[in-house]
């Protein structure tokens, strides 16, 4: 009886772990972190085409931002390999001037050597604060 109970417990534990892996979001989704006035984005390059075939001609990824007016390309990042799958962590410059505070939306796309551009990654929103507080009274 003890072995059957242990086997059932192990089975339930394995089922719980499998469900946790299925439900847990991608640990390397597109993210952004603000340190002072620097925004650092982090993401994984794709390894597959839109039809799930192997990616063999990745050229670059592009980082975009929007601060309320228009979508703007911040930079192109050369592919780590033609097959993608590289983990990228890179700073992005956005024009938040001294004396300003802005909400910035960021996302990425991937492009192949032919110029085909993917859809957007998830959009991340950060706040860049270069506005000092008022003086004490």
Q: What does the average pLDDT come to?
A: 83
| Portion of residues within helices | 10-25%
Major sheet attributes: 4 strands, antiparallel
Broad CATH class? Mainly Beta
Shape: elongated
Number of strands: 7
Strand order of the largest sheet: 4-3-6-7
Percentage of residues in DSSP E strands: 35-45%
CA radius of gyration = 21 Å
Q: What's the SSE pattern?
A: HEEEEEEE
Global structural class = alpha+beta
Indicate the low-confidence ranges by residue numbers. 8-27
Can you walk through the features of this model?
About 15% of the residues lie in helices and about 40% in strands. By secondary structure, the chain is of the alpha+beta class. The chain has a single domain (about 25-130), classed as Sandwich (Immunoglobulin-like), CATH 2.60.40.10. A hairpin with a 2-residue loop joins strand 1 (about 30-35) and strand 2 (about 40-45). The chain is elongated. The model is unreliable at about 10-25 (pLDDT under 50).
List keywords for this structure.
alpha+beta; 4-stranded antiparallel beta sheet; 38% strand
How would you briefly describe this protein structure?
By secondary structure, this protein is of the alpha+beta class. It has one helix spanning 2-23; strands at residues 31-35, 38-44, 58-66, 72-78, 87-92, 101-112, 124-129. The longest helix is centred in the N-terminal third of the chain and has 22 residues, at 2-23.
Give the arrangement of secondary structure elements:
Layout (H helix, E strand, L loop, with lengths): L1 H22 L7 E5 L2 E7 L13 E9 L5 E7 L8 E6 L8 E12 L11 E6 L8
Antiparallel strand pairs: 1-2, 2-5, 3-4, 3-6, 6-7
């Amino acid at each position: 009886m003890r072995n059957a109970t242990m086997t059932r417990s192990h089975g339930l534990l394995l089922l719980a772990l499998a469900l946790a892996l299925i439900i847990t979001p991608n640990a390397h989704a597109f993210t952004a972190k603000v340190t002072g006035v620097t925004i650092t984005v982090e993401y994984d390059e794709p390894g597959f085409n839109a039809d799930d075939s192997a990616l063999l001609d990745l050229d670059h990824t592009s980082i975009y931002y929007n601060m309320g007016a228009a979508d703007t390309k911040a930079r192109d990042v050369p592919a780590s390999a033609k097959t993608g799958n590289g983990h990228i962590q890179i700073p992005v410059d956005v024009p938040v001037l001294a004396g300003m505070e802005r909400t910035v939306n960021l996302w990425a796309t991937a492009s192949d050597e032919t110029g085909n551009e993917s859809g957007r990654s998830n959009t991340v929103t950060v706040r860049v604060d270069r506005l000092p507080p008022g003086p004490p009274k």
